[in-house]
Every structure is written in structure tokens, then in C-alpha cells.
Amino acid sequence: MNRIVLAASLIAALAAFPASAQQPKANIGYIGAADFTPLFVAKDKGFFDKHGLDATLTRIQIAPNVAPAIISGDLQIGMGTGPNLLHAAEGGLPLVAIAGASRMKKSNPIAGLLGRSGLSIKTPADLRGKKIGSPGLNTMLTEMLEKWLHDNKITRDQVTLVEVVFPQQRDMLKSGNIDAVITIEPFRSRMLSDGTAFTIADYVGEVNPDLLAVLWLSRNDWAAANPKAVQAFRAAYAEAIEWCAKNADESKKILAKYIGFASPVLPDYGVEVKLSDLEFFERVQRELGKLRAPVDVSKLVWK
User: Residue 153 sits in a domain of what CATH number?
Assistant: First the structure.
């Protein structure tokens, strides 16, 4: 009887023990894109559980809404970009990069500037006076386009940028409401394959042949208070990246489960965030006049 009583007491004690002390939790925000395939794999294949993180995945409609959700505490971890992080730092918001998500490489283009079929746009100069659909006016993809235009002697006021989220880009092109779009996979391949659009330029690859496309952000104070959660997230994500490399077809099926359709092309993935990655964005933003003063990027990467 004493053993039964002791066992019952231990079970009751464990039940009363705070769940957060047993396994850290994180609500993780993402948008519907192929960049986050390892996130979906880590959840579906149990890598988060394996490494001790109770992870909830939450889809956010547009990328600019992710950082405010992290700041408010609705998300503990969320997708972001180098420009997002720099804008937040300049505004005094306590965000840090805790891991990389994906990279855009010239050898494996996953983004591009597409033109509406039937238009004649052969050089950057042909974009003058054109209306370009952007997934967000302050997004990394749009800022890289502005850099590309700047490098090709096209000023920002010579084109019109309008916000068009990825799922609506095809219809907006077909209707003639826009002349070109800034897009990514799998939307890029779909518009090219059905004849809606043609490639104007792999402008990201021209600006930087190995660009940190997306990273994972958290509040600085949350990361400091939850180092085990950060470590578990990184370990699970790294394992998922390895799994994706060995299981491309199944990875695409898991991706389709989360965003509604598969992507014929998967990005390059990586957990590392190098200071040189953020230094590049910092230089570009100052060149484009988007930062009022230099930002110390060494304070923006969680160790």
C-alpha cells in the first residue's frame, strides 16, 4: 500500500508541476510560402517534440503583421527579414534574429519580377511608368527591387508600386490591373507555366547572389528568459532541413498540406544568420534612404 500511495503522490506532483517547466512552448508565425517547409516538417515529423519544444504553428496572412504579433506576445517566434529587423531596431523595438530560415541563391532562383504576357518589357528602362504589384511595400523583396531599380538608374518615382498579396497576383495580372509583379515560389512557377506572365529579371540574384531571404525573430527578453526554447527550435529546424534535403518529394507534400499546394522548386534552407547578411541589408537601406542612421547589427543576432 505504501508503494501505491508513493506512486500516486509522485503522479500528483508531476501533474501539478508547471507544463512550461517540463517543456517550453512557442507559438510560431509563418506566411504561406515554400520558405517554411522545414517548419512544417519539424512539426509533422515530431522534431519539435523530440527536442523538447511544444510548438504551435499559426499562419499569418501577410508578412508585415508578424512582427507586431511578436511584440504583443501573440507569437513567441515569427518569420521576418533583414529589413524588418533593421526597421524594428531603428524604432526601438526589442526584436532579435534567433535563426535563419531560407536563402535566395542565384543558382536556385525562387523569386523574380514577372511581367504580364503581351507586354514588351525587355530592359529595366521599359519599367518606367509601369504599375508593379508588391507583396508589401516595406518587405525585403520590394526593397531589393528598389535596389535593383536604383542600380539600373530607375528612380522610385518612375514606377508605381501597389500592394498585391501573392495569392491575388495572378488574377491582378490577367485583369490588366498591374503590369508586373514581385513574386516567389510557388506562385512564380504557376504564373509562368500557365502563360499568365514572363520573367523580366531574377533581380534578387543580380543584387546579391546569396541572400538571407527569411529569418526567425523573437523578442529579446523572451529569448533571454527561454534559452532552452531557442535551442530546441534551432535544433529541430536544423534536423528538418537535413530531412528535407533527403526527402524532397515528401517535403513538397507536407508543404502543400500547410499552404494548399506544392511548389515545384524549394529554396535553399539554413539556420545560420551571419553578421555579413545583416550588414548587407543595413548598407542597402542607408543607400536607399530608409534608415536615418547606421544600425549596429551585432546586437540583433541572438547568441
Answer: 3.40.190.10
Sign of the torsion angle spanned by Cα atoms 134, 137, 143, 148: positive
- The DSSP letter of residue 21 is H
Residue located via cell numbers 540574384: 205
Q: How far apart are the first and last CA of the chain?
A: 51
Task: Identify the H or E element spanning 116.
Answer: strand 111-116
Rg (the chain; Cα; Å): 21
- Which pLDDT value is given to residue 1? 41
Going by pLDDT thresholds of 50, 70 and 90, the confidence category of residue 116 is: very high
Cell 511578436 belongs to residue:
70
Its domain, for residue 82, covers: 22-103+211-299
**Does 9 reside within a domain?**
no
Which amino acid, residue 215?
Answer: L
86-96, pLDDT tens digit by residue? 999 999 999 99
The mean pLDDT of the chain is: 91
- Considering the domain architecture, whether residues 41 and 60 belong to the same structural domain is answered as yes
Strand order in the sheet with 197-201: 160-163, 131-134, 180-184, 111-116, 197-201
User: Same domain for 163 and 249?
Assistant: no
Please say if the pLDDT value at position 141 is more than 90: yes
In angstroms, rounded to a whole number, what is the distance separating the alpha carbons of residues 240 and 218? 20
Query: How far lies 288's CA from each of 144, 159, 167, 197, 281, in Å?
Result: 10, 15, 28, 29, 10
Per-residue pLDDT tens for 121-134?
999 999 999 999 99
> How much is the pLDDT for 21?
52
On whether residue 4 sits in a domain, the answer given is no
Contact 84, 218 (CB under 8 A): no
Instruction: Tell me the three cell numbers of residue 138.
Output: 516595406
Distance between CA atoms of 270 and 291, rounded to whole angstroms? 27
Question: Using one digit for the tens of pLDDT, what is the confidence trace for 226-260?
Answer: 999 999 999 999 999 999 999 999 999 999 999 98
In a shared domain, residues 185 and 215: no
